[in-house]
Amino acid sequence: MKYSVNEQGYYGDFGGAYIPEMLYPNIEELRQQYEIITNDPAYRVEFDALLKDYVGRPSPLYLAKRLSAKYGANIYLKREDLNHTGSHKINNAIGQILLAERLGKKRIIAETGAGQHGVATATVCALRGIECVVYMGEIDMERQAPNVARMKMLGATVVPATSGSKTLKDATNEAMRDWINNPVDTHYIIGSVVGPYPYPEMVARFQSIISFETKKQLLEQTGKELPDYALACVGGGSNAMGMFYHFLDDESVKLIAVEAAGLGVDSGHSAATSVLGREGVLHGSRTILMQTDDGQVVEPYSISAGLDYPGIGPQHAHLHKVKRAKYVSITDDEALNAGLLLSQLEGIIPAIESAHAFAYLEKMTFKPTDNVVICLSGRGDKDLDTYIKHFGY
Ligand SMILES: *Cc1c(COP(=O)(O)O)cnc(C)c1O
């Protein structure tokens, strides 16, 4: 409980709700309602049923034998890549759409970077027959063209964000603007543990299914419910919070969060927020973000669109500051190589985001008895072009 959110929506020094006056009613409604709604037994039944029969949960916990042999530890992969739509994002999208319905909302908006959250949102909107508008950076739309087509096929409207770096943070700004203009009938499905309170907490709870299942599966497979290490990549930090959630109070579990170093931490083309960032306010919460001396947000860079974000969620900022989790970073090249290695050792092509977590194994030393869990947050289908270009297949 030591790392939980307090009554005011803060994790230590971070969090809160820094929002324009006009969004206050929406955020206040969410804050007052989300726990009541999500704790309602009827809600739980519907949520659990969709996770099971629609998403395909529980996702397997797979002992990767050849990877384990290479690194000299027992390495278990939490297979979020096998979820419907190919990543962990669907867990949160389902949680929020069921919430939006109960709040009487008729229209859903979302932002997306890699397109995975947009696809997950468009998917659940199709499932429930609700209008869906997705904001996406113009550059990301080019990088992730198949996901744009998928969203359109699912019936969503995809609106390009053409300002700034034309990537995720600009799409997020556009979505916020839409919400300000449509406060009554619209719910904004944020895709990571970012944004004003209660979003970071709400999204973390929806994703906490990852460590909830992992604990049970570890107990079945190893006789112990706690691993020695839990690793996950961090963009905004939702798959990592999901993987860390039920281990936070067990200090024996070493938590490792892997950010994108892009071309290198000091290259000027990076998204290694915990190294390069300072405290400030981004997208409605107090957190750590990459900013210039006069407080302008610095354009982040990573080869993976999902990690190309200038901040981290407020709970991560807290875990970083109090050193409960270790924040490290991995370059584009290191991640791509780790993606190739996982493909050839285990027959699993990971999302480049997830490959960042795997790349950090190279930098660790283990005891042979160590149990290591890694969140394999998504599958690599969407990244094939990038892999192909890099390796020349
Ligand atoms: C979006 C995405 C991420 C990054 O988002 P988090 O909120 O940090 O989890 C990581 N992996 C995959 C596969 C994604 O689609």
From TrEMBL:
It catalyses: (1S,2R)-1-C-(indol-3-yl)glycerol 3-phosphate + L-serine = D-glyceraldehyde 3-phosphate + L-tryptophan + H2O. Keywords: Amino-acid biosynthesis, Aromatic amino acid biosynthesis, Lyase, Pyridoxal phosphate, Tryptophan biosynthesis. It holds the Pfam family PALP. Residues 56-378 form the Tryptophan synthase beta chain-like PALP domain. InterPro entries: Trp_synth_b_CS, Trp_synth_beta, Trp_synth_beta/beta-like, TrpB-like_PALP, TrpB-like_PALP_sf. Its EC number is 4.2.1.20. CDD domains: Trp-synth_B. The keyword NADP does not apply. Pathway: Amino-acid biosynthesis; L-tryptophan biosynthesis; L-tryptophan from chorismate: step 5/5. GO terms for molecular function: tryptophan synthase activity. Its cofactor is pyridoxal 5'-phosphate. One of its GO terms (cellular component) is cytoplasm. The modification N6-(pyridoxal phosphate)lysine is found at residue 89. Tetramer of two alpha and two beta chains. Belongs to the TrpB family. The beta subunit is responsible for the synthesis of L-tryptophan from indole and L-serine. This is Tryptophan synthase beta chain. The lineage of its organism: Bacteria, Pseudomonadati, Bacteroidota, Sphingobacteriia, Sphingobacteriales.
